[in-house]
Structure formats: structure tokens, C-alpha cells
Amino acid sequence: MGRQVAARELMDGGSVEAIVRTAASADYLKSLSIDAASADLEMGIPNEQRLSNKVLYWFAPPQPDGVQDRRIR
Fold first, then answer.
1. Is 66's pLDDT higher than 80?
2. How far apart are CA 46 and CA 32, in angstroms?
3. Largest Cα–Cα distance in the chain?
4. What is the C-alpha separation between 54 and 37, in angstroms, rounded?
5. C-alpha closest to that of 17 among 5, 31, 41, 34
6. d(C-alpha 44, C-alpha 23), whole Å
7. CA angle, 6 as apex, 73 and 72 as ends, to 5°?
8. At 72, is the pLDDT very low, low, confident or very high (cuts 50, 70, 90)?
9. Can you list the positions of beta strands (E) in the chain?
10. How far apart are CA 67 and CA 55, in angstroms?
11. Which residue of 2, 30, 32, 71 pairs with 59 in a disulfide if CB–CB is 3.0 to 4.6 A?
12. End-to-end alpha-carbon separation of the chain, Å?
């Protein structure tokens, strides 16, 4: 789903940045001209300044246990 949203944003002339789980996913997105970095979201978001003045789309499933999503708290 995230790739489809990114493709539409790029088609509309926008720019896209992504934080993904694996280095392989980041490399693939970079091949599509998307600025991407890999990170373990369980450990927090790297360089939170990246999110300043951006529209954020969240395509990460919640963790399998608990009642609060630790990734978005």
C-alpha cells in the first residue's frame, strides 16, 4: 500500500521519503527515486527531525501483543 501511495505522490510531482524495516526495502525504494532509510521502529524513529513539516502516512501493523501500539505512542 505504501508503494502505491508513494507512486501517486511522485506522479503528482511531490517528493517521498520512507522509513522501512529492511535495508533491501530501502534499496528498492531508492531505485524508484524515493529517499528511504531502514530502521527498527521498535527502537524509535531515527532522526525525528525528518518528520518536521511532512505529511506522514503510517503503514506499519501494530505489534501482536498489548493494547497500546508502542510504535506510535
1. no
2. 22
3. 40
4. 16
5. 34
6. 17
7. 5
8. low
9. 17-20, 35-38
10. 26
11. 2
12. 22
What are the φ and ψ backbone dihedral angles of 19, each rounded to 5 degrees?
A: -115, 120
Neighbours of 30 (CB within 10 A): 13
pLDDT recorded at residue 41: 72
Grid cell, residue 9, equals 505522490
Place of cell 503510517: 58
* Residue 10 near residue 17, CB atoms below 8 Å: no
CB atoms within 10 A of CB 34: 20
Give the pLDDT band (50/70/90) at residue 12.
very high
Length of the chain: 73
Amino acid at 62: P
DSSP 61: P
Give just the sign of the alpha carbon dihedral 13, 34, 37, 41. positive
